[in-house]
Amino acid sequence: MDVVMEYLDTYVFDGVYNKAAGLTSTEPLPRNSILRQSISLFVFIYTYIILFYFGTAGLSYRYVYDKKQEQHPKYLKGQRFLEMACASRALPQITVLTIPWILGELHGHSMVYKEWDKYGYPYLAISAIMFILFTDFCIYWVHRLEHHPKVYAQCHKLHHKWIVCTPFASHAFHPIDGYLQSLPYHLAVYVFPMQEYVYLALFAFVNVWSVMIHDGEYVSNNPVVNGAAHHTVHHLYFNYNYGQFTTLFDRLFGSYRKPTAEIYDRSKRNSKSVQSKQANEIDDKIPTLEAKKSQ
Ligand SMILES: [Zn+2]
Ligand SMILES: [Zn+2]
After folding, report:
1. Cα–Cα distance, 182 to 207 (Å, whole number)
2. Where do the structural domains in the chain lie, given as residue ranges?
3. In terms of pTM, does the model score above 0.85?
């Protein structure tokens, strides 16, 4: 992140802080001030995530998402806008909670490194694979624990309001839920080294992926990839397919559920009989989930 901050300080923030200092007749905050870095990071991360969220989910909604899904009996009235409002409320709070991790990075406490060949070129690919597997494993357990009846209602239930998702559901969480599920991405660079550009690229990728698994259109029915079909099963039937990128940990820990053939097939997926069968199964399931909360 220091490479991004370097550019932003030079081209944006130096001027802003100098102007603020002039207006208040004080010394400008130095670049390495924690207060200045926290403010700058909030402005940058919040702007980035809002643009990225509305940009990526908007493009996906326009060009990829099958809008016939909005006729599903479990699609809520005005749901797309409810999802956007939910994400817009959560993202500032998630941004604030994320700042300490990035400050740690800026002050050299993480294992992010600059030189491409510091650990050899093959390590760049190895570290990317490690990032996917490490974060997939952690998110699997965070997500699975969030489905525990003792905490489900307080933290994760909001994201399951969207039974038939649009791409805008991708970041529509309770802020604590969104933060907990993003923690592994920050933790990774405190556990193993990553080259800064590889890390930034993967960070962008995970945000796109999050949109992709909520748009309902699978790009692959590879048995190892946890795609939109698998996450559709998660939103329809709750206690299956907790993974983010792969089906490995669901298979390993007994929560894998194979998507049915009609989830992969647009014409079958949009048929009234398939949709009302899904709606009935959900109606049977929800009272069980709700009852478990009081246990
Ligand atoms: Zn989801
Ligand atoms: Zn869930």
Report:
1. 10
2. 32-292
3. yes
Contact 46, 91 (CB under 8 A): yes
Cβ–Cβ under 8 Å, residues 113 and 194:
yes
Q: What is the CA radius of gyration of the chain?
A: 21
Tokens at residue 18, please? 């100098």
Cα 34 to ligand 1 centre (Å): 34
Residues counted in the chain:
295
- Angle of helix 196-212 relative to helix 121-146, nearest 10 degrees, comes to 40
pLDDT in tens, 51-109: 999 999 999 999 999 888 898 888 999 999 999 999 999 999 999 999 999 999 999 99
Phi then psi dihedrals of residue 247, to 5 deg: -95, 5
Is pLDDT larger for residue 252 or for residue 7? 252
CA dihedral 159, 167, 165, 223 (to 10 degrees): -100
Write down the pLDDT at residue 288: 57
In this prediction, residues 144-156 reach a mean pLDDT of: 94
Q: How confident is the model at residue 285 (pLDDT cuts 50, 70, 90)?
A: low
Cα(169) to centroid(ligand 1), Å: 7
For range 110-117, the mean pLDDT: 96
Find the 167 Cα to ligand 1 centroid distance in Å.
10
What's the CA-to-centroid distance between 100 and ligand 1, angstroms?
26
List alpha helices for 64-151, DSSP H. 79-106, 121-146
Band (294; pLDDT cuts 50, 70, 90): very low
> With helix as H, strand as E and coil as C, how does 221-290 read?
CCCCECCHHHHHHHHHHCCCCCCCCECHHHHHCCCCCCCCHHHHCHHHHCCHHHHHHHHHHHHHHHHHHH
Which tokens is 117 given?
């060949």
Evaluate whether 197 touches 233 at the Cβ level (below 8 Å).
Answer: no
- How far away, in angstroms, is 97 Cα from ligand 2 center? 21
Do residues 78 and 166 touch, judged by C-beta distance below 8 A? Answer: no
